[in-house]
UniProtKB/TrEMBL annotation:
Residues 127-222 form the TonB-dependent receptor plug domain. InterPro entries: Beta-barrel_TonB_sf, CarboxyPept-like_regulatory, EF_Hand_1_Ca_BS, Plug_dom, Plug_dom_sf, TonB-dep_rcpt-like. This is TonB-dependent receptor plug domain-containing protein. Keywords: Cell outer membrane, Membrane, Signal, Transmembrane, Transport. Gene3D superfamilies: Carboxypeptidase-like, regulatory domain, TonB-dependent receptor, beta-barrel domain, TonB-dependent receptor, plug domain.
Amino acid sequence: MKLIFRHRPNVFICLVLLVQTVFAGTTGKLAGRVTDKDKNEPLIGANVMVVGTTLGAATDLDGNYYILQVPPGTYSIRFTMIGYQSLVINDVRVKVDLTTTINGALAESVVGLEEVVVQAERAMIQTDVTYSQANISSEEVDLLPVEEFQDVIALQAGVVVTGGDIHVRGGRGGEISYMVDGITVTDPYNAGVAIEIENNAIQELQFISGTFNAEYGQAMSGIVNIVTKDGDYNHFSGNLSLNGGSYFSKGGPSFKILPGYETEPENEVNATDMNLFPRLDIFIPSTVQDLSGSLSGPVIPGRISFFASGRIKRDNGYLKGQRIFDPHSFIWVDENNNYEIDDSLGLGNGYVPSLSSRIAGESLRKAIDSLRRADEFDWISMDWSEQKTGQLKLSWRFTPRIKLSFNRMYSETHSQYYDHSYRWNPDGRPHEFQTNTGNLFRMDISLSQSTFANIMFSNAVNHFRRHLSDDPDYYKQIQNEFDGWASDPLSDNLYEVDPKIFDFATGNNFYVGGQYMGIYNRKSIVNTLKTEITSQINSKHQIKSGFEYRKTNITMNDITVQYNAYTNFDPVYSNPLVSPTHDAFSSGGDDGRNPVEISGYIQDKIESDEIIVNIGLRYDFFDPQWKIVNDTEDPNYLIPLKPINRWFDTDGDGEISDEEMTSNNLKGDNDRLEFNAYGDPWFEMVNPKTQISPRFALAFPITDKGYLHFSYGHFFQNPNFSYIYTNPEFEVPAASGVNTTMGNADMEAQRTTQYEIGFSQQIGQDVGIEITGYFKDIRNLNATKIHKSFIAGDRYGMYVNKDHANSQGITIALSKRSLQNFSGNLDYTYSVSEGNASDPTAAFYDEQSNVEPEKMLVPLDWDQRHTINATMTYHPTAMSGISLVFNYGSGFPYTTEFVGVRTAFENNALKPASSNLDLKSYYNFIFMRKRQISVHINIYNFFDVRNEETVYNDTGRSTYSLLPTYTAQYSGPALNTLEEYLVRPHYYSAPRQIKIGLSVSL
């Protein structure tokens, strides 16, 4: 034994100092024991190396070793020692935040024998997992028929997607924290992801759906932790992929006309008009254009590397409209006291009917029907989008102990969304622009053999605009100065339609003119500084602690352009301080909103043969740096409502007499700010909020192939900043009823307490099973509270913490590793999600509709009781493969109505169930010895299923409504039938999409 210890090369003790460090939460750990193969005694000083990296370690007195900060991926591990035959174990998978155990048994040998090479047998069950999580590698993502990383999240157990929101274990949308390379990239304004990451840039995607460690915060439902790829330090590689595709569907008649309620034969609706998805029966490969690529390699071999990726995608969509009308088609004629077709402009394609000044009603309808049957009107894509993304990551081994990295990510999106009312007037819709920029810097330092530190800084900019112009910089016309808000009309001949035209086509009618009259511009700039230190203090304890400081700057303009006789028919915008048609926090010396978030944590991962424990404590501090009003009856100090807030109470009797209501006795703005009607300051700055979050989780290994786990934790999340800062001028429009909402900077953090218990076991050689049960108690959810204004009848909603919910469920998941070219996953989730409201604005809209808010727990909008996800991959040859993804979900709840009146408690009935099958197939060719060409086809919604996502509340179906039984066929301008308006393609899931592509490995 002494001889073995004497031959330990000291150089290998130092190898751990050369570790290729990455952020905490972005690496895994290798550990194990090295023994003499014949004697089963520990080998002291054996060298363990991760092949192709500078990562390594030497075994201790008990033959144990550990290697920290191993980036996720698949490696070969080499075991060497003088006097023993070398051993290489291939195909070792390392996952983020987990320990991969690899033991080595070395045989004594003479010098010169070749090393022994074996294949690692991957455990189906990871025994140090103490809460539910999934680690998806880049190779696994490549095999799936998915477009974005969000599609991968949607396949995980416990996840439900509805209305574009991702719900995890019954939580509301927006309860996920997104992280890239260990640092948060969530936009705190709306809880969305602030940086776009393409699939080809992902090294590993970690999704945590259960309780999670103290290092993760500002999330109540889940964590998405993405580790991006590093460039190769010695070799160049790349990939280029070109894809074209189309939505391909027969569409089919969609709306069932109830017997006895058909239109008259002479006005019978064209069958094309009743088709859900017209113009999709021909495969047009240019409908979806998708070009992506990546390039990786050394800048200075062995020292500096780069990884670059990019994507350009254009999707023309599947929801069609017709340019029957132009926004300016109709004009008001005073002589006739009505709207008529403009003789100079005519209809949408420039067609001017003869005698257009006299044509209206039935005559115009017949003229339009004739032109539609002749296909004279342009078909317009109404849900199109185009996106460009790019990433550049530089990694620099600055010294053996220090690594520097810089990751630059950029994306821009231009799109238009479908609006059913604009289906005959598609040019009246706005354009939307989204620009995301992220800069991530990091310094990783090895302090000792077992301790490392990370210093990180990120700058993320999320810029969203919505306006009529297709110029993304049009918003710059809006001045951000206090003076001159209403003096300069907008240019470019936009916003020059009197909004009164919308009153001409109310009810069940398509807009026959008019256009979106808003201009919206919001920018969030998030600067984050984060430091972490991790120390493996012995073989059983790994201590990790960290600190994070995040400051956000938000600027916003939300304008309704005024165009009417009062503006001399010039499109103008008003001073936001005195006009409810303009909200802003970036004007009059206002530099926007600047909330500050600070957090810190400490946690310990205890690992032994008998038990694994994760225990930690987290502290969160939040300062919105904003104010609240002290008198909610009279919130706007610039336009006060109470007499005592408008005039001085000169006689001190607490009332304002007629004699005191004089112009000379008016209070100034500063007077009101100092004292309101009750002698308090008008505004009060809110105090910062703090939270303490304990986290605890443990796992009991039963055998080397099975374990039990239990976890518990408190999880807090600040309200979206949109709920804190909305209506920044505290305005309540003077209109009877409930007409606006108001932010509240004094809201508390939302809170979830979650319990989880689970069992995992490997069955046979290639199958694993996991059974997990959970319960979530959710409190302090965002809601609205109705406040009365000083003016009788006027009310408004203020955001508060009032809603509550709970969720419980069980998940059964089976996984099969690749054996005989076949692998797959199958999971089933039964869950119950109930609460008093599904949306923060529920009480506000209930008050508007004169509906009593729910006082009991009811099913939430995303309460899907039964969910099944299945993936299957089959490789008939080494050069080909096919992957299938299947989803089934029971129906979501909805509220029954009859003649527009609710007939029972909220969400008392169920929509139809949904199902979907996606497919990916590929075949690879080798050329020039090393280059590879791949031909692939992706088919989404393979069977072209019509999943009914939104239903009519009087039938529970998307396919028919009872409206025709009590509503006239024609109303307003009488240009479309009721049945035409009730054909709602956006009520259904997307039709079949086929993409064909060619990829070349460089």
